[in-house]
Amino acid sequence: MMIFKKIIICRLKYHKTNQPVNLKGKKIWITGASSGIGEALAYAFAREGAQLILSARNEKELERVKNNCTTPPSVKVLPLDIGDHDAIFVKAEKLIKEIGAIDVLINNAGLSQRSLAKDTDLSVTKRLLDVDLTGTIALTKAVLEPMIQQKSGQIIVVTSIMGKLGAPLRSSYAAAKHGLHGYFDTLRSELYDDGIRVLLVCPGYVRTNISINALVADGKNQGTMDEATEKGFTPEEVAAKIMKAMKNGKEEIVIAKGKVLLATYLKRFAPRLLSRMTRNAKTT
User: Fold this and answer.
1) What does each C-alpha distance from 264 to 30, 165, 188 come to in angstroms?
2) Which residues are catalytically annotated?
3) pLDDT at res. 13
């Protein structure tokens, strides 16, 4: 326990900042904003007076979120399929010409998986990688140059606990999330002198539609809510933790509890024990 305590104290000292963060008027682009964590983030940033760009595939739901924000006139709806990489660059270029450089990009859109690796069609794996990994990278690259030119910006990436370890029924999803960690850890180092900061957010179970929309072996949606997901954090709780981490200048946060949180420590300090536990765990 002493080593855990020292690690936590060191991390707090390293990340602590007393600089106030004023988000009023900042241009913040949130993907996956039609529900769940993205929707909760939209409301949280709207209360701070930010200028929002909300993206997802469902334009009707985006309009609903916009109208529920405290200042709808400061919210722009921009429908976007993060898996359509060509459209990402076209829409981002048009947006930046219209409003200028993005101050904060929140990569939150994504798909999950509920199928064994041996049963999962390769097309499903490609879809998960196209959306969760390549789509996120593409959108980041699309907004990066103006951020570099203005010497400031923040990129927030909502990954997953699956970006730090693996579990049954999540093979392709975990591959995509692990890829995000590798890419954005590298990007953080490369862009530090350009005034651009990167925050990786690693949630465990969150009470959203992620398991309902998760892809099964043949590419169809699972269509049901997992028990663990239903008992997870609320999107509002996660949004509040993301906002706090951003304001405190953190580089990575884990939002988890119970066995899921324990697993992240076991992965680092007792990987063989975690492997044994994972083999015997009931995963949904």
Assistant:
1) 27, 7, 22
2) 173
3) 45
Choose among 231, 143, 223, 125: nearest CA to 179.
125
Q: What's the pLDDT tens digit per position in 160-191?
A: 999 999 999 999 999 999 999 999 999 999 99
The helix (run of H) or strand (run of E) holding residue 30 is strand 27-31
Residue keyed to tokens 């969760």: 132
Options 3.40.50.720, 3.10.180.10, 3.40.50.2300, 3.30.70.20; CATH for 22-111+133-204+233-269 is: 3.40.50.720
H or E stretch including 8? helix 2-15
> What are the angstrom distances between the C-alpha of 31 and each of 4, 54, 140?
35, 6, 11
The SS3 of residue 273 is: helix
Query: How far apart are the C-alpha atoms of 225 and 219, rounded to whole Å?
Result: 17
- What is the tens place of the pLDDT at every residue in 77-129? 999 999 999 999 999 999 999 999 999 999 999 999 999 999 999 999 999 99
Q: Name the DSSP class of 260.
A: H
Helix (H) or strand (E) holding 179, with range, is helix 171-191
